[in-house]
Amino acid sequence: MKKHRFTELLKKEVTPALGCTAPVAVALAAARCQAEITAPPLSIEITLSPGIYKNGWGVAVPGTDQKGNDLGAALGLFGGDYRLGLEVLNSAGPEDMEKAKTFLRESRVQVNCSATEKGIYIEAVVTTEAETVRTVIRDTHSTITSVEVNGKAAAAAPDKKQAIPQDQRAITYDEILDYTESVAFNDIAFLKEGAVMNRALARYGLENHIGLGSGRALFLAAGGESLPGDPALRSKILTCAAADARMGGSLLPAMSTVGSGNQGITAILPVAVWAESRALSDDQLCRGLALSHLTTYFVKQYAGRISSTCLCAVASCAGSAAAITWLRGGNAEQIGNAIKNAVSALAGMLCDGAKNSCALKMGVAAFEAFTFASLALAGASVGYYDGIAGNSLESTLQNLGQITACTKNPSDDALVAILMAKQSGRQ
Fold it and tell me: Is residue 393 a contact partner of residue 98, using CB atoms and an 8 Å limit?
């Protein structure tokens, strides 16, 4: 694939996101409906795939500690601006939040989980006295594929700007490494913004009681005066703190990767911490970040954008481990081995939805990225006789994809049943 295609891919997949991606994507669908209505909304009905349902069930909506897809839908309807993409709620203010909460209290928001829709699927239907508006998001969290007013198309579909070119589905890891080492710095300099953005989110998590509070607790346990010098522990604390802030409803955006803010946090902060600890140049930092993002994307090409396994751990840890290995002078074989180590160790980590405790899994991933890099550099790598691991990186990822394909639907169905039992008071 030509180098400019990788640059385009990074610019498309590495974007700011305000709040957890699932309820924000629900808000995006609702906001797109709002742009078409000509009368006050009477109700909104949301239908979600199991993966989106679970990922928006237990996480706070930005600006509040209240959780859920229903609040995301209502806030997007009253205060969202769909033109902002995954920062759709940047336009929402306190009055919009009060309107959203009133809509919820009046039982005007209905959220359904579809047993037939898989992957990323969000449907919002807004009813007024004048019209019914329907918006559908598929494939990625920001790809609006159709908008209908009273059953007639109101906008072009699919959103070709969001479509993934075919040659971006057939990339090889050798091409990723070649791009990392040869791309002009100016083409990837924008990636540094992600390190600044996610570090600010981590700082907020350290300074405030928010979300699970795991990063702050680890910081205080380490002395509470300054971050520890060990890059692995420092990365764990910062990653947990950033997740605490994001899952807890902070109004600060995260730089996401491949549709996930949490994956962006885990793919960026360990790499940035290592670069900082070794006083590396901006050029080296941005090349490391490019490799981390593209590795995360590469792993998700096999595992899926929504998976039964925690991609904040598996995919983003693989990304950080690859980048750290490269920044430490590792060759292509060692980088591949670092990824295989990450996949082998973390593939069994269940994705049980987006919520405060995502910080715990992300903290494990951030810390262990350094372990997997060190092991690979020392010649310690999983192989043929190690479960899903294969002799090559590609065979290992193919095996990962086979496992996630077999387990995704039953895992999601079981989790949705658990969440519905909680909601009904049976748990």
Answer: no
CA dihedral 75, 76, 79, 85 (to 10 degrees): 140
Residue 391, classified by CB atoms within 10 Å of its CB into exposed (0-12), middle (13-18) or buried (19+), is exposed
Sign of the four-CA dihedral 38, 251, 188, 307: negative
d(CA 143, CA 163): 8
**DSSP labels for 92-137?**
--HHHHHHHHHHHHTT-EEEEE-SS--SSEEEEEEEESS-EEEEEE
Please state which of the ranges 11-15, 99-103, 167-171, 381-385 shows the lowest mean pLDDT: 167-171
The residues, any chain, with a CB within 8 Å of residue 173's CB and separated by 6 or more, are 295, 298, 332, 336, 393, 394
| Two tokens, residue 408 | 């995704």
Tell me the C-alpha to C-alpha distance, in Å, between residue 422 and each of 53, 108, 220, 378.
14, 21, 33, 47
pLDDT, tens only, 302-336:
998 888 899 999 999 999 999 999 999 999 999 99
Read off the pLDDT of residues 165-182 as tens digits, 9 standing for 90 and up. Answer: 444 457 899 999 999 999
What are the structural domains, with CATH classification, of the chain? 16-153 (3.30.1330), 166-422 (1.10.4100)
3-class SS of residue 6: helix
Name the residue type at position 336: G
**CB environment 210-227: b (16+ within 10 A), e (fewer):** bbbbbbbebbeebeeeeb
Residues 6+ apart with CB under 8 A from 353: 54, 55, 56, 57, 58, 59, 415, 419
Helix (H) or strand (E) holding 47: strand 41-48
